[in-house]
Amino acid sequence: MAQIDDFFMRENRVEGITDSDYQNAHPYVEAAQAFAQTTYQSIYIIDYYKKNFLFVSDNALFLCGRTAEEVKQMGYGFYLNYVPEEEVPMLLELNRSGFRAFYDQPIEKRRLCMMSYDFHIENEGRKKLINHKITPLVMTNDGRVWLALCTISLSAHRDAGHIQMRMLGQSYYWEYSLDGHRWKQCDLIILKPEEKQVLALAARGNSIHDISEQMYRSVDTIKLYRRNLFEKLNVTSITEAVAFASNYGLL
């Protein structure tokens, strides 16, 4: 059975953090709190020195009926309690593979990395598929992650996995195969301006006819844009397309 320490790798062992360092980190917590007030997403901060959570927002998506303070006290125990047992090995594998890929990058580029993946949380027999993103927030002088910022939103997919690592400013990303246990480089999805506009208008609740009028295009043309979006994003509905584009920063 998995243990909390299984989530913390030797390669990212953080040492020497002082009370003064935590005082200096307080503005990051305040910024996370402010961010949480402006979004539907759940926000939390992982502390790799104390091996727990430094901050958990009270956005209900992630909490499984618990209070934010209760989840903060549980730390990684939350995953052992609320992630389906069959998906925990996936979390452990992507944690190991993610850190190894992260430390393959030059120190100056590590701050630009973000990893995204989907898994279920389960409460009272009900499962919810969420998208989880993690990026360095505060790093040590030797390039290890002390604090990491995590955001949680509803997944645009239908199953767990979809593990990706992205680096800001790059025209490609890396995707991890759970079957092959390796990363592969992929080209970023590029949306045309018209496709982005369809997504943005759909995200505001506009119908096809509304979008047609606002874009001065025929309904058939808007349907063509939608079909192209579905094919590019590998989704089957405009709701899934909007969620995918939001989760992966395509809008």
In short:
By secondary structure, this protein is an alpha+beta fold.
Describe this structure in words.
This protein is of the alpha+beta class and 251 residues long. Helices cover 38% and strands 26% of the residues. It has nine helices and eight strands. β7 and β8 form a beta hairpin. The N and C termini lie far apart (41 Å). The model has no long low-confidence stretch (mean pLDDT 92).
Largest sheet: 8 strands, antiparallel
Q: Please tally the helical runs, counting DSSP H or I stretches of 4 or more residues.
A: 9
Radius of gyration: 19 Å
What is the CATH first-level class name of the largest domain? Alpha Beta
Question: Given the helix and strand composition, which structural class is it?
Answer: alpha+beta
Regions with little confidence, pLDDT below 50 for 5+ residues: none
Tell me, briefly, the overall form: globular
Strand line-up of the largest beta sheet: 2-1-5-4-3-6-7-8
Strand residues, percent: 25-35%
Strands, total number: 8
For the termini, the CA-CA separation is 41 Å
Mean pLDDT: 92
